[in-house]
């Protein structure tokens, strides 16, 4: 049961989106019900919280003050919940995690499945988001920690651990590239290649390699979805270029092989575990973070 009143929950959603309709979509509450709560709250407080503009709703000075207080109350409530969780130890607890789409398969589901067996009282909520949105979501208190690629600098965030993820060729285990410890990028001109396109971040380093080496990639297919690239490779349509993490699950199962591309100028992807510096983490969150740190140390 939510601790915050309906008015405060609705107010924060409208303030975040600047729109009653968008708040309605997020909360799955009728827009008319949200509007009534906001109007009633303004009446009780005796002040206008939003400016009604043709482009949407904008916070007044009073609204800004209330939103700041709401966020402080939310942080205080999270800290209290953390203290209560700590009293229970690891028998019970909950945590919220932000991850990119690339981690919806592979090591993280496996780790969380193992956790479910050993610590059934811990409830984990996983939210799939774009890496470039995660920093702001963490600071706003939407999650305990995030696993994100190439995190930009944010004063409020701290990187607990990180791993460099190599870029390489993904092929069938029977392919001759699979027997190589590492491979030159020039092989991309010798075999039919399946390459990623925007919005996948991997298209950038591939473009850098083409420009640096002068190699013309023998592209036979392109896709903006990692699973599609792997599916085409599994069907024998060509050799893919992906990160090790993208193919981790299939490599572990022996369905695909991964061979790193050898090039000193090729920057690896960085997978970082980030937290809000000011957030007091629950026992459950700290435990899962430790498990991920151990996995990074053992597997990569």
TrEMBL record:
Signal peptide: none annotated. GO terms for cellular component: cytosol. The keyword DNA-binding applies. Keywords: DNA-binding, Transcription, Transcription regulation. Residues 8-60 form the HTH lysR-type domain. GO terms for molecular function: DNA binding; DNA-binding transcription factor activity. PROSITE patterns: HTH_LYSR. It comes from the Bacteria. Pfam families: HTH_1, LysR_substrate. InterPro entries: HTH-type_LysR_regulators, LysR_HTH_N, LysR_subst-bd, WH-like_DNA-bd_sf, WH_DNA-bd_sf. Belongs to the LysR transcriptional regulatory family. This is LysR family transcriptional regulator. It comes from Acetobacter okinawensis.
